[in-house]
Amino acid sequence: MNYELRKWLLAGAMAVAMGGWAQDEPLNHLTLDANLMTRGELRYGGFPSAPEFAEDHAQFVMARTRLSVGYERAFLAAKITAQHSGVWGQQGKGAFNLSEAWAKLRANNGLFAIIGRQELAYDDERILGRNDWAMAANSHDAARLGYEGHGHKAHLVLAFNQQAWNTNGGTQYTTSSGAQVHRSMVTGWYHYDFKRIPLGASLLFMDVGLQNDQEEDPKVEHQQLLGGYVKFNPNRWNVEAAYYRQMGTDEFHIPIKAWMTSFKANYDPTGQWRVTAGYDYLSGDPNPQVPQIGSLGLAKHTVVRGFNTIYGSHHQFYGAMDFFYVRAYYGGYTPGLQNLYASTRFRPIQAIDCSVAYHFLMTAERIDGASRTLGHEMEITAEYTPIKFVKISAGYTYMHGSSTLERLQRVEGKNHLHWAWLMLSVNPRILSFKW
Fold first, then answer.
1. In sequence order, what are the beta bridge partners of 237?
2. Which residues contact 220 (CB under 8 A, 6 or more apart)?
3. What is the spatial distance between Cα 362 and Cα 371, in angstroms, rounded to a whole number?
4. Which domains are seen in the chain, by residue range?
5. What's the pLDDT score for residue 410?
6. Is the pLDDT of residue 365 over 70?
7. Lowest mean per-residue pLDDT among 107-116, 163-172, 305-314, 330-339
8. What number of other Cβ atoms are within 10 A of residue 49's Cβ?
């Protein structure tokens, strides 16, 4: 037999034995990534001062360290991310956990399944997002089934949480038992990218089961969210809009009738600078009874009309100081929020980005004897990328809070609030190996 013919026959036999892969194409890909984020913060004003302290201020340094191992081949992928987060000098040495631990099976027709602890980030991350600004960030124990192809994306997310593997005593899961505040979650998401126009549209449905903390007769209450999101990118414009509605009952079996809407547009004329304007409206509880400081008052609600932002990346939407939808108002209710904002971003050179933003914040509902205005917030940030994998960023925020904000959160001294931070992020890929 001719030598060349024998060589090609041998190569073909090996290709068949290896499942059709070419001889020089690697079957496996292993990666090792690190993420080190350290942020120092300086805050003045905005929290109640204990009697033994003369001033309301704080300084601290927070840090997060992640080490991720990833593996991928034709129809299989897996990732494990170990995470430590805490404050420098913290008693107890901070918190250590697995932020990700999942396996992904995929077919060549676009179907896939991801099982395990994973990040859920959809659309602009307003409802479901990574919340990466927070040191612990967001992750979910869930099974995600989906299809992606030909402009269509359809995902189904299923989650069911337990406190322990009970062999008797029922299945209990209270909100104070762990990081996952829901006992069950069913999420459906569909997205379509149009071919002829630069338009993408999404539909989102969620059912979240919350178990109350009553030991004698615990029950699971279900709340639903339904809405949509669109993004339009003609030329140098980017326009986004969303609408969501909440229904069902909260953990105290009170009916929920809440909604929110948002609109944002930005224009990038040269690639070096960009201007943005937008508006958010989140419904609130009507006629909230907010007692004055020094008095006690209770309000009974027969319907919950305050919108719950669920598991979104809150920091990037409602002002950098995170007064809204991260910290609760006094009494647990919310008068809602109106957020009218404008910003500009400028890139003087390739490695530097600077931005300035302004927020005018108001309640959605009227409050007896108080103005709707919550305050004015001004933000200045800068980012510098000196080398690959390294970013240095800094920011300063000033907020002129109103008497309404002081009354809602039962805290004095919010007329002039200052917050500054400096952060270093290092994200190297340590290893990338194929064989």
1. 267
2. 183, 184, 209, 210, 211
3. 9
4. 27-160+182-434 (2.40.160.100)
5. 61
6. yes
7. 163-172
8. 14
